Amino acid sequence: MIALYSNIEIASLRRRLQREFGVYAPAGFNTWMTDVMRIGADADPGAGDTAITDAYFILHGAGDLDLPTAEGAISHYATAHPQTTCYVSNLTTPATAIAPLKGQYAHYAQERAWDAAIERLLDLPNVYLLDIRALLAEGGADALYSDKIWYLSSNPFSANGEKRLAALIVRLVTAHTTPRKKVLLVDLDNTLWGGVIGEDGTEGITLDFHKEGARYRDFQTQLLRIKDTGVLLGIVSKNNPDDARAAFEHPAMVLKWDDFAVIKTNWEPKALNIAAIANELNLGLDSFVFVDDNPVERAAVTSALPQVTVPEWPEATEHLARFAADLYRDWFFTFDLSAEDRTKTEQYAANAARTRAAAEYLTPEDFLRDMDMQLEIRAAGQSDVARAAQMTLKTNQFNLTTRRIDEAHMRTLVADDAVRVYIGAVRDKFGDNGQTVLALAKQQPDGAWSLTDFLMSCRVMSRNIEFAFLKHITDLLVAQGATAIQASYIPSAKNAPAADFFADAGFTLTATDDCGTRHYRWQPGDPPLRAADYITVS
């Protein structure tokens, strides 16, 4: 259930959102602060026993608003409800100032003061911005607001504006449980630049700091920003490799050759290259977005690889920067960045080095023993919450229960004395893989502990790290008095690689239900769990 709090009339917005979710809003007009300030750590008034997962504070500059009191109310709510994700809107002020030009700046003092308040509120870990000002910039005041509706109902939004605000809220709610895509693949000619590099040469392509060529430079700038949020960039282009690389020496190029984790510049069908990249990265095809200006190439990839997302190319290239922003919003949106996000390209480059090195060994076991793998395991703290939540949202193949946990919920689990959250970071002689293994265990009344979640990034699969991790945390739980360890495998469309993990580790299968869920148990006195003695665990 979501909650709406506002100093304007939001009954119509509530009705729109009730088509998608349960919605709670205080009774009466502009009663939100009174409602919020009497809320303790229990369920919200009027929401019954249903937990509020998302709370939206939708404030408007033309409504009655005491800024310090509003800031205090929201701070109180967010602190009392750490498991609730809170969104606070910025203010927009009607452009109706009647004042000398020198004095019009004061007309927007309320907006500036509230911006400062939002900045303070964002220090709270479960508070985010609801950017209504961005909606205003996208469509203009006439598209977002209606004077007629304002005077009729104290609701400033036009029907279209309210529809757009509702769409934004729906997108934010669903983003908690919708894994974002992991790889953005792009064509080169007439995509990253105008023209064909093999025919026009580096000097002849359309790419510049100004005028026509600047649209491609701005597009590249946006793609680099997407990369900086932890998305892998890749090239899939029908081109001569030398010609393609030469283009990156152009003085107006923003993206560099090393910004791309994978590069396929050849004359093979693009679908074949994309399938090869998925295999090299050990990622499902549904993790990919492919961008190409050529409708024939887009259609061919869609036909051969329907799991790959292939957005339409904009009709006019002057909209390329906006197109990139839409790519991020629709497929790569994230609430926060982890340390792993910032080094994703380097991590996959190290993985490619591992793959090449493995071919030089007689057996996989010989290779693993020579990797000098180190697994650091610790109880997750509040600083690990963002990464831990992100892993549950993004990990599919080696995820035993595929439970999605957003940051607010993860924060409460980390603080719960009856729950243990263990996170593991992996290093080897090729580099640092970062935090890539996660398990959550919950204490049961009979003294047993249940592994409610066990997952591992696909980029460290096939190294037996999961066995070393499981054995270590099991030893920790037994040392803390666990009488048994329970676990389950819940099948999904993507987690078949993990189907036999608990059995292979040494757990005993106790039951299989009609949905295919397998239940396991291990307890002290059973045969020791499988280990990997070539992995140093600390």
Q: What is the topology?
A:
Layout: E1 2-6, H1 11-17, E2 23-24, H2 32-37, E3 54-58, H3 67-80, E4 85-89, H4 109-121, E5 127-130, H5 132-139, H6 141-144, H7 147-153, H8 159-175, E6 183-186, H9 197-204, H10 211-227, E7 232-238, H11 241-247, E8 260-266, H12 270-281, E9 288-291, H13 295-304, H14 320-332, H15 339-342, H16 344-358, H17 364-369, E10 373-379, H18 385-394, H19 407-415, E11 419-428, E12 431-443, E13 449-456, H20 465-479, E14 485-489, H21 501-505, E15 508-512, E16 518-522, E17 535-537
Helix pairs in contact: 1-8, 3-4, 9-11, 10-14, 18-19
What does this structure look like?
With 538 residues, this protein is of the alpha/beta class. It folds into three domains: 2-175, Rossmann fold (3-Layer(aba) Sandwich); 183-332, HAD superfamily/HAD-like (Rossmann fold, 3-Layer(aba) Sandwich); 361-537, Gcn5-related N-acetyltransferase (GNAT) (Aminopeptidase), CATH 3.40.630. It is built from 21 helices and 17 strands. It has helices spanning 11-17, 32-37, 67-80, 109-121, 132-139, 141-144, 147-153, 159-175, 197-204, 211-227, 241-247, 270-281, 295-304, 320-332, 339-342, 344-358, 364-369, 385-394, 407-415, 465-479, 501-505, and strands spanning 2-6, 23-24, 54-58, 85-89, 127-130, 183-186, 232-238, 260-266, 288-291, 373-379, 419-428, 431-443, 449-456, 485-489, 508-512, 518-522, 535-537. An eight-stranded mixed sheet has the order 15-16-14-13-12-11-10-17, sandwiched between helices. Strand 11 and strand 12 (431-443) form a beta hairpin. The chain is flat and about 80 Å long. The two termini are 41 Å apart. The relative contact order is 0.07. The mean pLDDT is 89.
